[in-house]
Amino acid sequence: MRRFAFNGVPCSDRALRIGVCGPVGTGKSSIIALLCRELSAPLELAVVTNDIYTDEDARMLRAAGVLDPDRIRAVETGACPHTAIRDDISANLIAVEELEGDYTGLDVVLIESGGDNLTATFSPALVDVQIFVLDIAGGGDVARKGGPGIERADLLVVNKTDLAPYVGVDRDQMVADAEAARSGRPVIALSRLDTASVAELTGWVRHQLEHHRSGELVPQDPGPMAPHSHAHDDRVHSH
Ligand SMILES: Nc1nc2c(ncn2[C@@H]2O[C@H](COP(=O)(O)OP(=O)(O)OP(=O)(O)O)[C@@H](O)[C@H]2O)c(=O)[nH]1
Q1: What are the domain boundaries of the chain?
Q2: Is 121 annotated as a binding residue?
Q3: May I ask the CATH architecture of the domain 11-213?
Q4: Substitution candidate for ligand 1 out of 20, 29, 30 with most atoms within 8 A of CB
């Protein structure tokens, strides 16, 4: 079913909005820089970053020279990052819509969440698809810990795989654990040093854009919290 914005324009006519979230330091800004480097020639891109008290990530991306600096806008959330990507998305929506107004013909807007914990996910009212990022150096067991992003984000990236031998993590086992948690949803084992994995990531973005342009992409909400049970009762439920 085709989706329409409030002004009656089909959503598939505007840019594809991709959210990137995950714990602090997992490599979200680096992934956005990578995507800008790889895709800004064939595609029209823009970026919105979120930081709690600064515009540090936006400044880092502008300094990296991966995109026209005016196409990189910062939202200072002033509160826990998930509030601005899930609970009150207005500041982010305004930033995205301003970019779409300033640059007609944008193909993709990348929205980077501030680093948060395993429960953070984007509202499907803000993004069309979302990527959850884990750091292999954060421990091989993290993929098994679950949570809405790990289990149900549109894409899970197990990042910095080049570091696996140095931190004693079994990369293949961590990817297998992630795949087991995700019921067939895609997982990419990524390192910016591994060109094949970078091509896999850019291929995924291109595929999402085609799906969006066809009008068939319907945003899926990973949910604010994974279904779980408490010790005193064995009924699985979610909040
Ligand atoms: N070895 C290695 N390091 C990486 C890779 N990707 C990112 N890093 C490093 O990981 C660190 C954190 O990367 P960022 O991109 O700043 O992470 P972030 O998730 O945006 O961080 P916050 O915005 O603070 O949450 C930096 O020192 C990056 O250089 C990778 O593929 N391999």
Answers
A1: 11-213
A2: no
A3: 3-Layer(aba) Sandwich (3.40)
A4: 30
